[in-house]
Design goal:
CATH architecture of the largest domain: Roll
CATH superfamily of the largest domain: Beta-grasp domain
Oligomer: single chain
Bound molecules: flavin-adenine dinucleotide, FE2/S2 (inorganic) cluster
Largest sheet: 5 strands, mixed
Strand order of the largest sheet: 2-1-5-3-4
Structural class: alpha+beta
Radius of gyration: 23 Å
Distance between the termini: 63 Å
Strand content: 15-25%
Helix content: 25-40%
CATH class of the largest domain: Alpha Beta
Amino acid sequence: MRERLRFYFGEELIEIASCDPTLTLLDWLRLERRRTGSKEGCAEGDCGACTVVIGRLDGGRLRYEAINACIRFLLTLDGCHLLTVEHLKGTDGRLHPVQQAMVDCHGSQCGFCTPGFVMSLFALWLNEDRPSVARIEDALAGNLCRCTGYEPIIQAAQRLYERGDRANDRFALASPAMVKRLDALADGETLALADGSRRFFAPASVEALADLLSVYPEAVLVAGATDVGLWITKGMQQPATVIYLGRLDELRTISDQGGHLRIGAMVNHIDTRKALAELSPQLDELMRRFGGEQVRNAGTIGGNIANGSPIGDLPPALIALGATLVLRHGDEGRELPLENFFLDYRKQDRQPGEFVEAVLVPKLPEDALFHISKISKRFDEDISAVCGAFLLRWDAGGIITEARLAYGGMAGIPKRAAAAEAALLGQEWNGTSVAAAIAALPQDFTPLTDMRASAGYRLKVAGNLLRRFLIETSEPETETRVAGLLAEAAHG
Ligand SMILES: Cc1cc2nc3c(=O)[nH]c(=O)nc-3n(C[C@H](O)[C@H](O)[C@H](O)COP(=O)(O)OP(=O)(O)OC[C@H]3O[C@@H](n4cnc5c(N)ncnc54)[C@H](O)[C@@H]3O)c2cc1C
Ligand code: FES
Ligand code: FES
């Protein structure tokens, strides 16, 4: 085991031997290093003021990602390259092209959000050439600004690509040298640090993880920390033992296994989106609206499932598709239908010491129709009030032979609507059968009223989503999606 965290902070090699296991990266930057460029707005991953860029080795290349420093733990940076807004200005005092474009386009007023926007744009600049306006908006959806109205910031992003020279960007030019430095840090050792009675581990292999879990079966597993981070910053929890999964490259793979995709638990939402988009454009759209870019970079498919939230977006979609969960305990593995994993509110079929290894996602049969609707108060970067995912199949006579209707936000767990499904089976897909399914929904669900929606609204909207599915299949010319209506409005 190695008892020292090692990562590069710009050009500086940082080594830390003792640290609170859940010290956030933002607190380390601001309170210990006095690097106050990264701001704290919300401390829960919503506003993007704390955005920094982290580089990690991915298949031999350096992959830079924007993440929220407020909910990321410092100790998860082992083997990474950290860049904050302070690194962008050149040693000659000249602003980086991203910063200069923001100045030129008046992209900053009070300035509080500006370092976060700069870092999100910087990550986009490092990774993508000439993004469309839609893509720029997507990349910035995790950054909030109360002053500018966003237009000057989007203009800055466009100006940057018109005038900047990506090929000669000093960070791009320095990348091969940084790959070598990070390679030299990758020793395959489990990282183990303690702070009083609290412990942090970052195993470098699944075997090492299994060994640790046999000793600490109640340890809190941390993947992207986009849920766990809030337990610390908002819930004030202090877990005794934390095991970070981010060094397990084996859990980051996606493989096509013929009838299904096998997606490793640590695959982040950016890569999950690419894989699922191949199966259905509806999955692509769902994942586009999952958090903001920083949350999609950090958050993982395994975390979204294992968290067991009733309003997680992926579980309803994966349940409707008939996905299977792969769990592992030591050398033992088991598989179960994803829908059986969720037992009760925040109670999952996961034994102490067991972890989620992968998800098997069936490809859509050619004769199936698949639909997803996410209803949230804000279009981007908002968790669902209700999410409905539906899969239907017919026989040659147009009679429904398979109906999988899965909802989030309607019960304490993501759940299938068994009575509504029964109302559809053996029927034709039309207004009458849909009305019967809607009438059956109160047998399936007694939703709660909370800050996201009232119980009455939830039940009403759950039925309306089935109606929307029917309209989309029977009257495809009718526009039913906000994105489509916005595009129509933009074109006059
Ligand atoms: C601003 C913001 C916006 C968000 N928007 C959305 C949204 O639109 N839709 C949505 O569904 N969610 C959203 N979330 C919630 C969160 O991003 C997701 O649930 C995410 O997928 C969690 O993944 P993670 O890797 O960050 O999990 P973590 O926070 O690291 O872990 C979550 C839970 O899963 C457990 N866990 C993680 N990996 C494993 C594993 N391999 N085996 C066993 N247990 C494991 C952890 O112990 C913990 O209990 C949002 C969060 C934030 C902060
Ligand atoms: S401070 Fe708001 S996202 Fe981090
Ligand atoms: S410039 Fe004031 S919040 Fe964005």
